[in-house]
Amino acid sequence: MDLDNQKPDGELVLQTVAMPADANAYGDIFGGWLVSQMDLGGAVLAHQRARNRVTTVAIDQMVFIKPVYIGDLVCCYATVIKTGHSSIAIKLQVWAIRMRYGIEEQVAEGTFTFVAIDENGKPKPIEWSVDKN
Length: 133
Description:
By secondary structure, the protein is α+β, with helices and mostly antiparallel strands. About 15% of the residues lie in helices and about 40% in strands.
């Protein structure tokens, strides 16, 4: 994966600052915290596109590229890559802006699948518009 001169793909769906409570003793942010931010960001786009309550059903692919550190501005970018009867697959890229140094670099990438659900938590068909995006 050549990341030189690469820019984020998709739309910005979440930004947050990595804090000390989210880090280990070495100052590296826990991978689980980063996955939860990606899940939140993916759910934002899935909800907007499905215009319905959604839930995460799968993390189909996940790669940690570089560590995230305390004080980094974590930015999640999302793109719809597939739509189904009641599901939507979202590609997420996470970029960190290293606030101390003004450097922006990709730190993670994954594909999350969400399913639209009704008030009883059962899968519900999504009424896609013509463009589905």
